[in-house]
Structures are given as C-alpha cells and as structure tokens.
Specification:
- The protein is an alpha+beta fold.
- The chain has one domain: Arc Repressor Mutant, subunit A, CATH 1.10.10.10.
- It contains five helices and three strands; from the N terminus they run H-H-E-H-H-E-E-H.
- It has a three-stranded antiparallel β-sheet.
- Helix 2 crosses helix 5 and helix 3 packs across helix 4.
- It is globular and about 45 Å long.
- The N and C termini lie far apart (42 Å).
C-alpha cells in the first residue's frame, strides 16, 4: 500500500473543490447524508452529471455510498470533513469575501 504525501492529499482535496458542482455536493453533504436524486435536484444538475461528480468524490475518498434498498445514500467519508469544510469556508470568506478573479463560477 502506497502512502500519499501531504502534497498529494491536499491536491486530491483541491481537485474535489475545484469544480463548483463537486463543491456544492460537499457543502450539501456537510449538513448530512442525502440520496443522489435529492442532491441533483437541490444543486440543479442532471442525475447523470451528478453521478460523474459523485464518482470523482468517492475516488478522492471524500464521499461514501451506502445502499438503502433500491436507492443509494451518500455521506462524507469522515465527520471531520464537515468541520473542515465549514472552517475552510469561514477562513476564505474572512480573508476575501468577494472573489474578483473574473471567473463566472466565482461570482456570488
């Protein structure tokens, strides 16, 4: 088993947060588990698009899937991630509440 370096772990987390849809999924799951159809509706993406993002988040080790009958419930892989996401968002908003980079996804 290969041990990831600190840099690789942070890069994996960065990859997950780099996409607005994946970031939205993480923020939704920060508040508790959810079914994929509910997540797609709340975020405003197709189920197929969400499925691809959930696969990425699972591969990054940030999200786990729990079968419940014919549906699948998703949740953060570790409860500490919810706290980390809230802390990260709080720090970013405290440092620079409005992004001025010009990228449309960053607009409030």
């Amino acid at each position: 088993m290969q041990t990831l370096t600190t840099h690789a772990v942070l890069a994996r987390f960065g990859k997950a947060l780099a996409d607005p849809t994946r970031a939205a999924v993480l923020m939704q799951l920060k508040d508790g588990p959810a079914f994929s159809g509910d997540l797609a509706e709340r975020i405003g993406v197709s189920r197929q698009a969400l499925s691809n993002h959930l696969a990425c988040l699972r591969d990054c080790g940030l999200v786990v899937a729990e079968p419940e009958g014919r549906r699948v419930r998703y949740e953060l892989s570790d409860p500490k991630l919810a706290h980390a996401l809230a802390d990260l968002l709080g720090v970013i908003l405290a440092v620079e509440p409005v992004c001025t980079c010009g990228v449309p996804e960053c607009a409030p």
